[in-house]
Amino acid sequence: MMAMRRPSSSVPYHHGNLRNALLAAARDVLEERGPSALSLREIARRVGVSAPSAYHHFPSLDAIAVGLAEQGAAEMGACLTAASEDRRRSSGDGKSLLRTGEAYVRFARANPALYRLMFGEGFQPASKGNDAVRDLRQRARAMIETALAGRLPAAELPVAGLFLWSVAHGLALLIIDGQAEPAKDADAVVLRVLQLGGRALARRRR
Amino acid sequence: MMAMRRPSSSVPYHHGNLRNALLAAARDVLEERGPSALSLREIARRVGVSAPSAYHHFPSLDAIAVGLAEQGAAEMGACLTAASEDRRRSSGDGKSLLRTGEAYVRFARANPALYRLMFGEGFQPASKGNDAVRDLRQRARAMIETALAGRLPAAELPVAGLFLWSVAHGLALLIIDGQAEPAKDADAVVLRVLQLGGRALARRRR
Is the CB of residue A24 less than 8 Å from the CB of residue A30? Predict the structure, then answer.
């Protein structure tokens, strides 16, 4: 197995370790200074390896962006799954969807630049046609549709899913971008907005 | 008044004309190739003036981004106002909000890169702290809150406004980014998602 040595320390990088170290450095740069600050040279410098060593793992900035989007999608998927499993202990599907929505917005707020990158900012290839991001999208849609299956006719599920995703995505971005006025208690505002989303899909009296 | 001559034609640029021509060229570059392709040199080249002439109007890329965001905010504001005035001829506030929401998503879909720039993509200064964008935000919120004032208690208006804005913003971006599966009839899907938003705020039986 290939190993590289950090010039400034005695910790060697094994192949997978270096890849992860480069991604971690890229993520720091992304969150600190935005997508336009990403460069292979800067990422290699932070990790303490040569630019060609970094290039070996990520031949282009787009490759790094795709790696970051995949990592983000995996982490976000785990957060949503945890929230949706939590619902099995709670009382009914309305509450579960709320918890999943809160987890969604929480992840985006905690990783604002990564979240924006996952949705195409600066790097369209990382968003469009990326398998991990597409999987996340399908998993999120499936969770929503499963939770709603008991209360809506099947034909209404795709639009209902797109609606709930729009609420969470729009809300997360408006907060990240500082477009929504800062609230004293942002968590409470998020909850109330998501509750309105659920209200639109409440069982109808027929 | 300052005038410059296009090298390739006999049409002179007066001061305001050149500014507008530069903005129009910047907008073309933005929609064709994204925010990272914006450069003063390329914009000057397209207009047929020297880079210093362009620099005179826009000393930095951020200045161009702010100019584009202001132009986008003014145009979008006009579209929303037209849609909201249209409602006075229609039957009730539910319909008016729908028309305004449709106009909102339509503008974003017709100007995807400009819309993303207005919300910070690539150029945070064009989004945060820009007076025109802030005015647009406040105007849109005021339209929504006026339309809802008859059906909700005053204390609920800010959260309700943020909710409807989240639906429109999230939906517009998911469509622009190609995250939502392409529908046979995207306009009909937009309408149905916006209708769900209205349903959340329907008058409650007390």
Answer: no
